[in-house]
């Protein structure tokens, strides 16, 4: 029985990284569509806040730039464990201004 419990725990530990994490971004202006698809994720948007599940552990400037090109200027991009810094958000915003 202990062996089964250990094997079950090991399986869960190995499978956990494969689960998608909840990400949120906020835009400077309301997003026009209720749903947008970008970086392989369907984002559900309400006004300036969009949420989606991505198979990543952290937010990146690269993803922010791709999202911003479709949704508009991003003022915050977060997950439960991380967020983009002010400098990273500025780099993301610069991509939209070009």
Q: Notable features of this structure?
A:
98 residues, alpha+beta, five-stranded antiparallel beta sheet
Itemize the secondary structure elements and their pairings.
Elements: H1 2-15, E1 21-27, E2 35-38, E3 41-46, E4 49-54, H2 61-71, E5 74-79, H3 86-97
Antiparallel strand pairs: 1-4, 1-5, 2-3, 3-4
Helix pairs in contact: 2-3
Would you give an account of this structure?
This protein is an alpha+beta fold. The protein contains 3 helices and 5 strands, in the order H-E-E-E-E-H-E-H. It has a 5-stranded antiparallel β-sheet with strand order 2-3-4-1-5. Helix 2 crosses helix 3 (86-97). The protein is globular.
């Amino acid at each position: 029985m202990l062996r089964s419990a250990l094997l079950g725990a090991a399986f869960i530990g190995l499978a956990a990284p494969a689960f998608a994490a909840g990400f949120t971004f906020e835009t400077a202006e309301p997003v026009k569509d209720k749903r947008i698809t970008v970086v392989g994720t369907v984002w559900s948007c309400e006004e300036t806040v969009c949420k989606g599940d991505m198979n990543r552990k952290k937010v990146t400037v690269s993803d922010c730039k791709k999202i911003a090109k479709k949704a508009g200027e991003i003022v915050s991009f977060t997950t439960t464990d991380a967020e983009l810094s002010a400098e990273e958000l500025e780099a993301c915003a610069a991509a939209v201004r070009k």
